[in-house]
Amino acid sequence: MGGTWLENTYPGCRVDVSSHLYNYSFFTHDDWPHYFSSQDVLLDYFRQFADRNGIREHIRFGTEVLAAEFDDDTCTWTVRVRTPSGDTEVLGAQAVISAVGQLNRPSYPRIEGRDDFTGPSFHSARWDHGIDLDGKRVAVIGTGASAFQFVPEIARTVGSMVVFQRTAPWLGPTPDYHAPVSNGLRWLFRHVPGYTQWYRFWLFSSSVEGGLPTVDVDPTWRGGERSVSAFNDERRALLTMYLEHMFADRPDLLRAAIPDYPPGAKRMLRDNGVWAAALKQDNVELVTDPISRITERGIATAEGEYEADVIIYATGFSASDFLLPMTVTGRDGVDLHKRWNGDARAYLGMTVPGFPNLFLMYGPNTNIVVNGSIIFFSECEAHYILECLRSLLYDGHRALDCREEVHDAYNEMIDAANRQRAWGASAVNSWYKNALGRVSQNWPFTLMEYWERTRTPDLGDYDPL
């Protein structure tokens, strides 16, 4: 159980959405120990939910889906799986729901010589707890969300650390990022009826939807790659002031810490001062020179070689490779990945023409980056999918197939809106974009709009079979 909270166990791993938003609306928790919970606490929450609702007994653990194929004659799916014993089994289903996520397949950089390094190396999402880092020379590639959390943790005990940065992240000041929830607030949650729900709503209304206007593109604004509007530029100024404060005593680090792209164009990271403190340690060095190759002894740039005992890749995930490595075959034998051709799209992020009764959760363009919790989207998607299945039961149809023109018009709208957000307008490299440069990850509108679109399926969007 637990998804990303099962797989990511690196030191310092925690959520960057408020704990009181990062839970199911129908299974709220009034005793979160921290405002932003750590990995072990979140894993325990999802395990508790599964156990209390009788879900665990319906899960087949250690089972990999190899392929799913739609039968045109019977309007059913055949799903081929590999069992824990290694055997292959074939299952039949009238509907298939994919909930494989986006951020679960580590992405490794294409750097020459990566296999030449003779010491241990691993990705942050596959942390090797058997390797003792104490006193070691450690090289970290990447300064994204994962590195931002584990670097301050391991910097305390490693012998030395070199952090290789390609693109500086914007830091969002969050003083209570590691803070425990106050005793007074926890008392209110436990003793005042409805307070937990009110607090959740207050967080939602005050901090969730308010971020979207800061990334809106003003077509008359001439901010270049610095900002996309006056509002966005004001935010840049405030965030820059924060960086200037954090690195006031290290002008060399300050120059490397100020991003050269608009706020919101890449994932912003929550910060309570530990990142700057870690980079300023005597045993830590930040390198911004591009990596030329990895050698037997470490990492080389044009300026020289940095020897290391261990290399840690904090280089993110293959987010744009939706549903890989599964083979998915729809009507008339069409292969889903050939249809997508590296540019995954779906109606509402959930349904694809020619693939009846295949529903995707956390599919294309359902990622939210400045305005909310993925839990909210998951609930909306689950509700929509169940309503579709309910309509099949009541109307007597075998399957629903999304209409091509509905799918295409929807995606044209999504693309146009994403181009009007900082992440679509900026040229900065980002996991929000696929290999073709299209923003295939992000939802560009408010959460309420997605909620409204998913409350009741418009059956006119589908051809019944």
Automatic annotation (TrEMBL):
Q: Give the UniProt keywords, A-Z.
A: FAD, Flavoprotein, Oxidoreductase
Q: Does the keyword field hold Secreted?
A: no
Note the superkingdom of the native organism: Bacteria
InterPro entries given in the database record: FAD-bind_Monooxygenase_sf, FAD/NAD-bd_sf, Flavin_mOase-like
Keyword Flavoprotein annotated: yes
> What one GO molecular function would you report for this record?
N,N-dimethylaniline monooxygenase activity
Q: Which residues cross the membrane?
A: none
Q: Name one Pfam family in it.
A: FMO-like
As for family, the record states:
Belongs to the FAD-binding monooxygenase family.
The entry's protein name is NAD(P)/FAD-dependent oxidoreductase
Q: Which organism is the protein's source? A: Planotetraspora mira
